[in-house]
Amino acid sequence: MEDQGYRGLVEDILENIKVRGDQALIEYSQKFDCPTLTLDDLLVKKTEIEAAYAQVDEDYLLSLRMAMDQIRRFHEKQRTHSWMEPDEKGSITGQIYRPLERVGVYVPGGTASYPSSVMMNVLPAQVAGVEEIIMVTPPGKDGTLNPYTLVAAQEAGVQKIYKIGGAQAIAALAYGTDTIPKVDKITGPGNIFVTIAKKMVYGTVDIDMLAGPSEILVVADEKAKPEFLAADLLSQAEHDVLATALLVTTDGELALQVQQEVEKQLQVLSRREIAEKSINDHGAIILTADLKESMEIANLAAPEHLELMVEKPFEILGLVKNAGAVFLGAYAPEPVGDYWAGPNHILPTGGTARFYSPVTVDTFMKKTSVIYFTKEKLQSDGAHIIRLAEKEGLTAHAQAVQVRMKD
């Protein structure tokens, strides 16, 4: 990520809020978000949530609640439990799993509406058992929040919602102010200022990941439908002019058909200019000799979203090594994962799927190791521990075992 042009500004914002707290926070909020915002306006009030419910329709609420149920049930399967294991000499080792106490969720805002980001951040934290979930999201110029985002937060169980965004929101969550409590972890995507701020506060708090522009790579054979492929490529291209949309196929004729279909479908998109620039600057169609070569390219790219639009997708699923999420077959387009299926849509980008995973319940858990030795166990194993410590030159380590073996 090219962040040198922004890093100095973000660093100033973080330091200013760390030192001056609420005063700096409101100054930045007035400068970047809403000019008339005051400290009293930051915390969303009950009346604002009630007003948001009055603006959304019942059909939306039905769809939202059904999606939340799907997402919650999927994440409940990820729960991990503490464990203890004794051995024959009476020693015990194990791990204690505990949820984080307070997390901060960043949801992009302003003129946009991202209730799906609310669901994907909040529900796994809730399933994990996090005691306090705080949400921050930037307001529009008039100081209001999108009603769909507000309703999603209320339905998901967010305790507090603050009208702040950008690097200043990350700073407030990381360091705490008189108004915003300090959190243990910050999750959720944002613009480049948010991403750099998360990168810089890591260590003071934990973060989920550094999210980059969205990506999709579609592997297709001659059986794939051009209109499906074009629609799926554009579904990611419309996110951002920096988004990447790649088609990897074994069929040259299909490649030409998809190119024509992309041009056709672009004409009717509400975000045509963004999608068109993304396709022109970061889109590509790659021809391969066979599906094995296609999968080798997919693994090298390690995409955020990988679609296997082939006749028998399960036969090549085993070849997938690097991907944030895999979508199998003609009827599992990427938006199914964004909103409905259940798995989290907060996924590694920029090739980081080589070593990173999607947000899960485990993202909001911490682990503590447990060790118990009996006298007999230490007598049995102590000499080995002493030997290893002495080879490292750590004689006090060795002594801590020796004094007990003499007891």
Q: What would you say this structure looks like, in words?
A:
The structure is a single chain. The protein has helices at 4-20, 22-32, 39-42, 46-55, 58-76, 115-128, 147-156, 166-175, 192-201, 226-237, 252-266, 272-282, 291-301, 313-317, 334-339, 375-391, 395-405; strands at 83-86, 92-99, 102-106, 132-136, 160-162, 185-187, 206-207, 215-220, 244-249, 283-287, 305-309, 325-328, 365-372. Helix 16 (375-391) packs antiparallel against helix 17. A 5-stranded parallel sheet has the order 5-4-3-6-7, sandwiched between helices. The chain has a 5-stranded parallel sheet with strand order 10-9-8-11-12, sandwiched between helices. Strands 1-2-13 form a 3-stranded antiparallel sheet, with no helix packed on it. Helix 10 (226-237) links the parallel strand 8 (215-220) and strand 9 (244-249). The mean pLDDT is 95. It is globular. It is α/β, with parallel strands linked by helices. It is built from 17 helices and 13 strands. Zn(2+) binds at residues 236, 239, 338, 397. Substrate binds at residues 214, 236, 239, 305, 338, 392, 397. NAD(+) binds at residues 106, 168, 191. The active site is at 304 (proton acceptor), 305 (proton acceptor).
